[in-house]
Specification:
The chain is mostly helical. The protein has helices spanning 2-8, 14-42, 46-54. It has one domain. Helices cover 82% and strands 0% of the residues. The N and C termini lie far apart (46 Å). 0% of the residues are buried.
Amino acid sequence: MKQFLWILCQPDNLPIVGMVLALGFLLGVWLRQALRNDRLIRDGHPEEIEREMRR
């Protein structure tokens, strides 16, 4: 584990680590919004999705 962390902290690898973290964050945002939209459709409020997209 110590060697793995040492490799991750090398200057050449920091942008890759940042991209992986950003991808994880954006995937979480996308999944949260998708689940919310599915819930609105299931509950019969599809117009709420369009209203939020226009905000």
